[in-house]
Amino acid sequence: MDSERLADMLASIEAHEHNIDAVLVVRNGYLVAEAYLNPHGPDDKHKVYSCTKSVISTLVGIAIDQGYIEGVDQPVLSFFPDRTAANLDARKEAMTLEHLLTMSTGLDCRDSYLYRWQGLREMEGSEDWVQHVLDLPMVAGPGTQFGYCNGASFLLSAIVQEATGKNANLFAREHLFAPLGISDARWLSGLQGITIGWSDLYLRPRDMAKIGYLYLNGGRWEGQQVVPAAWVEASTRKHIAATLQDGYGYQWWVTDNGVYMALGYAGQFIFVVPEVNLVVVFASALPERDFYVPQRLLEDYIIPAARSANPLPQNPEGVARLEARIEALALP
Asked: What pTM does this model have?
């Protein structure tokens, strides 16, 4: 890695006064840069917002691998045999787990920045969030169009709970967080004790990086296959054209140049760049107009800093400059 380029990236953050709390760069399994902007530090947990969706997808893959769920073709309504859905038609009956994963349910969610999250507020104001989502009318056939929907991610959490008998938080602690050495995650629950599958997960930046590195390595962590490799591959390829990026996988955003990411409100990002064996984490409190700043920093500085697959010539001056930048950002 080119330390000068990374130092330039940190200098840009400081010069433009971007409200970024932490930046971590992992290359070839090594933490090559870790910067925290005052007053934040490595032990601070950050609300990762919609990065949570990529974690709930991971749990679905583990639950399928362990036999709790048949597969992604299982109809959504089959997970809730004691419930009756309103606005029932053939399209809703055809909606599968995969349609939830790819945000192509066909439901009238109206639940994204395009609608100022109106649908999310309506769901949160209801007495039964699962029933509210199941009752939504259909506006398209499942799988025909992308429609961002926090309620779809909440149904994924409810399905994990229905299938395994444990809420997603507990299931994650046993089957995802524990193998990765994530010991102090915080994940809130909503009504009926169902973990909030679209948000409200709090992680340290290093723990965010662990999730990215798990996926970079095909679901393996220290010799253990935590997530099936086939699930990682399916999750991180484009299933449908999307809005914020080129496409969407299984609750992961994907680009046409091979980068995939978990992303969340206010600039929370877990970037995975397989071509150069790179994982990058940003924890931020960015205003909406600056949402894509971390992605621009990735493209303009961090990926170009991965200049070679082999060690670069030693550059003590560049390393010293990078370390000085990291130390300066940590100061009041």
From this structure: 0.96
